[in-house]
Design brief:
By secondary structure, the protein is of the alpha+beta class. The chain has five domains: about 20-195, Rossmann fold (3-Layer(aba) Sandwich), CATH 3.40.50; about 210-295, Elongation Factor Tu (Ef-tu), domain 3; about 310-385, Elongation Factor G (Translational Gtpase), domain 3 (Alpha-Beta Plaits, 2-Layer Sandwich), CATH 3.30.70; about 390-495, Alpha-Beta Plaits (2-Layer Sandwich); about 500-610, Alpha-Beta Plaits (2-Layer Sandwich). An eight-stranded antiparallel beta sheet has the order 11-10-16-7-8-15-12-13.
Length: about 625
């Protein structure tokens, strides 16, 4: 009996000793601060990437990621590193930097004990750096500050170090100077990871408790879930369940995430790995869910799970109505790779059959459109994007509306509530005035203003989400000459004086151009749409009336004049009555055409709202 106990104690001690040599960490940074390039140098120095596999942005395996220089999906990879005669296992989780993917970032951070905070020595601290840093601090991560791009001539190390010390309260000696391009300082980063990032903790004898932090779709194997084990162990062939979806599966294959997936028979506490169970639908695997055993489940799920909620909605329609089924198939395949995309069928009188899609934000929407075009060769029309509103009816019922056409009649509405955000803008002090004017024009309210240094200021604004959906980010960048950085998070819903603005062509409402807008902006917005449509809609043989209306009230109008055919050209001389007779005949014909004539709306007209400020 004591012999068995000794074996068990020896096994547990061996597992704890193994855990002492594991380091789980992530990289957090603002867009374009060089985290993917620095990750490449870490992979090279640890020998994870061979010369044959070497390429720029190894972890960004999507063509779109490489082209735009941004990380869209989280990526995980395992590295081995020898230090002072001991072998260490590093699990690196590369996270997206953009605000649209903040939930993915939060789950990746929850799977780690430490974080490399990468800051560009030429640009200093920016909004998403602070946002992701707060997420890491909330999860008690050990922060290692790294000053990147030190090889550039315009680097400002002393100035940026002051910003980092003010933000973190660390010492100047704690900040590592590095260059992802040249590899300078990368060995120091690896040493700091070993010395400062704590080893994973957890009970290897407890029931299995593992956090899913990402998932990818493989056309042969189905959904592959990436997880981090917090307690217990998982073996190949185990029967497991996902706590929040309550689905049960057999672990057909488990393994670790090297440059390619490597199978293992068992994964233990502290390990990061993948599981393949033949899952075919993305809805069954949710980021943030907990994996446990069916027979011996854990007492509670890992905290922090939430269903990802789309914030921006738009209609996507095929240009050719016959391609509707092809578009449906393309959307299904896209959803397998991107579980945060939501869609449901809808129809429009103007555009026919299509889909109402929900996106995490404007960048997410842009990426989905781009992928539909590149990966599936689908030419689509995207309607005006809008946010979700909550309508409170006279009967005190609360209805969520994603589409202006789904709004009840005005007489049934008590009030409409719109989502509000808390925005953080970091900029140079020279641009404060123009940026504050932009925010106030967008119905923003200044909540706080903090000088990070003598010439850098952080503005905290409260604004309606609907106001930043169209052109806010582009305007912010042009006003600040590219220096301002922007980050936001949803704070809740507030009542607003919103109206439904309809666009009518010859008295017929074009539902795809309808939008919900604040009452104070409706007149100006409607007038500009009418003016833009007048430029875009080709002239017909009859007059086309373009009108903007709120309910039955017309607030703006433009007219596309008819093309005049010279019907009297064939009359050479003769009595004037011959010409009059031909002109009267033409007038009657045009009157009949106006009654039965259809107005052809070009595709560019549906993007008119997005381009109103061009």
């Amino acid at each position: 009996m004591s012999f068995n106990r000794d074996i068990k104690i020896h096994k547990i001690n061996r597992i704890f000793a193994r855990m002492e040599h594991i380091r789980n960490f992530c990289i957090i940074a603002h867009i374009d601060h060089g985290k993917s390039t620095l990750a490449d140098r870490l992979l090279e120095l640890t020998g994870t990437v061979t010369d044959r596999d070497r390429q720029e942005q190894v972890l960004d395996d999507m063509e779109l990621e490489r082209e735009r220089g941004i990380t869209i999906k989280s990526h995980a990879i395992q590295m081995d590193y020898q230090f002072e005669g001991k072998k260490y296992v590093f699990n690196l989780i590369d996270t997206p930097g953009h605000v649209d993917f903040s939930y993915e970032v939060s789950r990746s951070i929850a799977a780690c004990e430490g974080a490399l905070l990468i800051i560009d020595a030429t640009q200093g601290i920016q909004a998403q750096t602070i946002s992701n840093l707060y997420l890491a601090i909330e999860h008690d991560l050990e922060i290692i500050p790294v000053l990147n791009k030190m090889d550039l001539d315009n680097a400002m190390p002393e100035e940026v170090k002051d910003q980092i010390v003010d933000l973190l309260g660390c010492d100047y000696e704690d900040i590592i100077e590095a260059s992802g391009k040249t590899g300078y300082g990368v060995d120091t980063i690896l040493e700091h990871i070993i010395q400062k990032v704590p080893a994973p903790k957890g009970d290897p004898e407890a029931p299995l408790q593992a956090l899913i932090f990402d998932s990818v779709f493989n056309s042969f194997r189905g959904i592959i879930a990436y997880f981090r084990i917090f307690s217990g162990e998982i073996r190949k062939g185990d029967l497991v369940k996902f706590v929040n979806t309550k689905k049960e599966y057999e672990a057909n294959e488990i393994g670790v995430l090297r440059l390619k997936q490597e199978q293992r028979q068992v994964l233990r506490t502290g390990d990061v790995g993948y599981i393949i169970s033949g899952i075919k639908t993305s809805k069954e695997v949710k980021v943030g869910d907990t994996i446990t055993h069916v027979e011996r489940p854990c007492a509670k799920a890992i905290e922090g799970f939430e269903n990802v909620k789309p914030m921006v909605f738009a209609g996507i329609y095929p240009i050719d109505p016959d391609e509707y089924e092809e578009l449906r198939t393309s959307m299904e395949k896209l959803q397998l790779n991107d579980a945060s995309l939501t869609w449901e069928p809808e129809s429009s009188a103007a555009l026919g059959f299509g889909f109402r899609c929900g996106f995490l934000g404007m960048l997410h929407m842009e990426i989905i459109q781009e992928r539909l075009d590149r990966e599936f060769d689908m030419n689509v029309i995207t309607t005006v994007p809008n946010v979700s509103y909550q309508v409170v009816t006279n009967k005190k019922e609360r209805i969520e509306v994603h589409n202006p056409s789904g709004l009840p009649e005005q007489k049934y509405i008590e009030h409409i509530e719109e989502p509000y955000i808390k925005a953080q803008i970091i900029t140079r002090s020279d641009y404060i005035g123009s940026i504050m004017k932009l925010c106030l024009d967008k119905r923003g309210e200044l909540k706080n203003q903090v000088y990070l240094t003598t010439d850098r200021v952080e503005l905290s604004m409260e604004m309606p989400l609907g106001e930043i959906v169209f052109d806010f980010y582009d305007k912010l960048k042009s006003i600040s000459k590219g220096y301002a950085s922007f980050d936001y998070h949803i704070t809740g819903y507030k009542p607003a004086k919103l109206v439904k603005l309809d666009i009518l062509l010859n008295g017929e409402s074009v539902d795809a151009l309808s939008t919900l807008i604040h009452h104070d902006n409706a007149y100006d917005f409607g007038r500009r749409i009418c003016e833009k449509l007048k430029e875009l809609i080709p002239r017909q043989q009859f007059d086309i009336a373009i009108q903007a209306a709120i309910g039955a009230k017309i607030i703006a109008r433009e007219t596309v004049k008819a093309v005049r055919k010279d019907v009297t050209a064939k009359c050479y001389g003769g009595d004037i009555t011959r010409k009059r007779k031909l002109l009267e005949k033409q007038k009657k014909g045009k009157k009949r055409m106006r009654q039965v004539g259809n107005v052809e709306v070009p595709q560019s007209a549906f993007l008119v709202v997005l381009r109103l400020n061009d």
